[in-house]
Specification:
Elements (H helix, E strand, L loop, with lengths): L1 H41 E14 L2 E14 L3 E5 L6 H8 L7 E6 L2 E2 L5 H11 E5 L10 H11 L4 H14 L15 H13 L5 E5 L7 H18 L2 E6 L2 H4 L4 E6 L2 E6 L23 H12 L3
Parallel strand pairs: 3-8, 3-9, 6-7, 7-8
Antiparallel strand pairs: 1-2, 1-4, 4-5, 9-10
């Protein structure tokens, strides 16, 4: 009986130990799955193997070469590189302004390729904001009328559009300038109007293409500080395309591009650099003519 009892005890002990291992592995797998799911949910934008080609006659230009890219919710990311490296092309593909030749892009977990042109336009109008180097403000409209334009073309009622636009101008410190036209504003104030317009639809993500390129160093620093404040206080996700190291220095992460590829990443100091920030174009030339701004409105929001 003794040997039999000992054998039973050993088998029972082995069984309990095996069960504990199974349960522990199960918990680890569940935890790992939960972490992976949580990580996927936190990705605002994700791109995999993105290729973008432009065909002209018999030649083909490959602007993006199998790019993998992602941005976490609440992150402020700078995409940097020399002119012609594919920065703006990447922004256009990630925002759905351009189709990709190969690869996939997900915005908030939705594959952009599964959306129709109309659905992508609606997604841009409701979930994205855009800040450009050239302000694209209609010179015949006041600041508040420029800010409310994307709401009106998206079907928001005029009273609500006006209230939301006034609040957006208050956020960027320009409420008292609401009735002024672009020609009556400084370059920094015009860019603040552009930021208010980008924020007015409560976007999930804001794209900036050289947002300080037309500003002097003082105004550039003010605009970048404002965007950083919105990022930290409101959890706003921003992706800024720039060649300016002073802009990248204040972001959470710098993604570097060259010849259509991502060649590296780094974590900067988190403080915008005054050196290198500066005007590249005269601010007076940055009030767009109505025809160009109307065209851009159609491209972004499908109307105008």
């Amino acid at each position: 009986m003794g040997p039999t009892s000992g054998s039973d005890d050993t088998q029972q002990g082995d069984h309990v130990q095996n069960q504990m291992v199974i349960e522990r592995n199960g918990h680890m797998n569940d935890s790992r799955s939960a972490q992976m799911s949580e990580s996927a949910e936190q990705k605002m934008i994700r791109a995999s193997g993105v290729v973008k080609e432009y065909r002209t006659g018999t030649s083909t230009l490959q602007a993006l070469k199998g790019v993998d890219f992602s941005v976490t919710k609440g992150e402020m990311v700078a995409v940097m590189g020399p002119s012609g490296c594919g920065k703006t092309t990447l922004l256009n593909c990630l925002s759905g302004l351009d189709d990709v030749t190969e690869g996939q892009v997900w915005l908030e977990g939705v594959d952009l390729a599964t959306l129709s042109d109309k659905q992508r336009t609606e997604s841009r109008a409701r979930r994205m904001g855009f800040i450009f180097q050239v302000y694209n403000l209609l010179p015949v409209l006041s600041a508040i009328e420029n800010v409310e334009l994307p709401l009106l073309v998206s079907g928001v009622k005029s009273r609500e559009a006006r209230d939301r636009s006034r609040e957006a101008l208050r956020t960027v410190g320009l409420e008292q300038w609401a009735t002024h036209r672009p020609a009556e504003l400084s370059g920094g104030q015009r860019q603040r109007v552009t930021i208010a317009r980008a924020l007015v639809n409560n976007p999930a993500i804001v794209w900036g293409d050289e947002p300080t390129g037309a500003l002097d160093s003082t105004n550039a620093t003010e605009i970048l500080t404002l965007m950083r404040e919105l990022n930290r206080t409101q959890g706003l996700t921003l992706v800024l395309v720039t060649h300016d190291p002073g802009v990248g220095a204040g972001c959470d992460r710098i993604v570097r591009m060259r010849d259509g590829e991502i060649v590296g990443e780094e974590r900067p100091s988190g403080e915008f650099g005054l050196d290198g920030l500066g005007v590249t174009h005269g601010t007076e030339d940055s009030v767009q003519m109505p025809s160009r701004t109307a065209q851009l409105t159609r491209e972004l929001y499908g109307q105008g």
